[in-house]
Known about the structure:
Domain Enoyl reductase (ER): 11-341
Pfam families: ADH_N, ADH_zinc_N
Keywords: Metal-binding, Oxidoreductase, Zinc
Helix content: 10-25%
Enzyme class: oxidoreductase
Bound molecules: NADP nicotinamide-adenine-dinucleotide phosphate, zinc ion
Family: Belongs to the zinc-containing alcohol dehydrogenase family.
Amino acid sequence: MRTTTGWQADGSTTTLRRTQLKRRDLRPDDLAVRVDYCGVCHTDLHAVRGHDGEAGRPLVPGHEFTGVVTETGPAVTGFSVGDPVAVGNIVDSCGECPMCRAGQENFCHAFPTLTYDGLDRQDGSTTLGGYSREYVVRDRFAYPLPAALDPAAAAPLLCAGVTVWEPLRSLGVGPDSRVAVAGLGGLGHLAAKFAVALGARTSVISRSPDKADDARRLGAHDLIVSTDPDSMAGARDRFDVVIDTISAPHDLGPYLRLVAMDGTLSHLGHLGPVTVETIDLLIGRKKLSSAGSGGRPGTAAMLAFCAEQGITADIELLPSARVNEALDRLAHNDVRYRFVLDLSDLDGDVG
Ligand SMILES: NC(=O)c1ccc[n+]([C@@H]2O[C@H](COP(=O)([O-])OP(=O)(O)OC[C@H]3O[C@@H](n4cnc5c(N)ncnc54)[C@H](OP(=O)(O)O)[C@@H]3O)[C@@H](O)[C@H]2O)c1
Ligand SMILES: [Zn+2]
Ligand SMILES: [Zn+2]
């Protein structure tokens, strides 16, 4: 085993502490990656804050990171030491099921191995995430980071970005589309940038009217205030696609009413049971959909699109020692629009 340092919740507290971690020795098709930057996803917050009581299972969050290859296993041909790479929230899959064969490893029938709190397919260990200085990853699930992209601002593309990219693409969003993005956070601001870059007339739906200037800066046409009944009523049936990135449980009805006839509400944010009035689908023959993460081809295509269009996340970069502050502020919706941790402060002895 090799050792590294990271930020871990031990199950008895929701505070992350700097801890020495073990990483597996490299398998033939593994890369060792020095993690430089890792985004703070709202899923990390759900994981850390919901972890209380699961004592004994270590949790190291972090599933959107960029860094540099420091070592390669003997069977690796696509990467060399020194290559900049990016890793998202999936680090393995069965490779054989119809979903994997279709390049949708994110939907693997045997369930993909998640970057943290997942089950390693070979040794059964719990995966530890990217809030750490080193990660060991199977080469198939690392992506060359395009030189055009700033490595810190690109990190959030690997979860937040690809999670909104795949549904936008599969729903055929393009120049004739009318798209609304509900919830202007990490996922939402990238969904807005992508929809605009794909040529769609794009709106933002937010509880926060003070985000209107940001919405316009991101290229959106307007901001619909979700807490203002007049604003919502004025947008009835207006959108071919509504991308819902809201992080809390909520009634889908008000958002379905904004979907145009035969359009789709893609519910990506808070996952779990929802209650839907079928009449909200019936009137206008509307569709309700969901998605999560991306397959290997989709992730590579998203990175190429971002490099071509110059798209990265709007970030606030913090030394990783301030990770607990980042999680607190994320819980209070106090981020525009993604925290990224700089892991270089983990070099040296565990303090
Ligand atoms: N499907 C997947 O694979 C996948 C992948 C990544 C993340 N997620 C999930 O997606 C959600 C968003 O993640 P994120 O990192 O983008 O979070 P985030 O940066 O915190 O953004 C979430 C946004 O939701 C809105 N919001 C928050 N609480 C709300 C409430 N009570 N009512 C209405 N709106 C509310 C806020 O936007 P406004 O201020 O504009 O209202 C907030 O900025 C999380 O639940 C996360 O776990 C899913
Ligand atoms: Zn995520
Ligand atoms: Zn599979």
